[in-house]
Amino acid sequence: EKWNTVPKVLRGKVDTSIVVGEDWSNWSNTYKRSGEEFKSDSPRRFVQMELILSTEDYNVAPLVRSLSVEYVNALVNGARGSIFPKTAKPNVDTNFTYELIPDIKPDNIGFDIMRLIIPDLLQVENVEVRYNNEVVPFKKYEIVADSVLISMPESVVADSVQVNFRTKLVRNAAVIKLDLGSSDSPGLWQNVEPAERRSDVVLLPDLVTTNRIFDQIEISNRMLSPNRDEINDSLDLNFTLLSVDVAEPVVEICDLSGRVIANLANWGHGSYHSYSWNGEGHRGNIVSPGIYFLKLYANLDEGDYTRYYTISVVY
Question: pTM for the full model?
Answer without folding.
Answer: 0.74
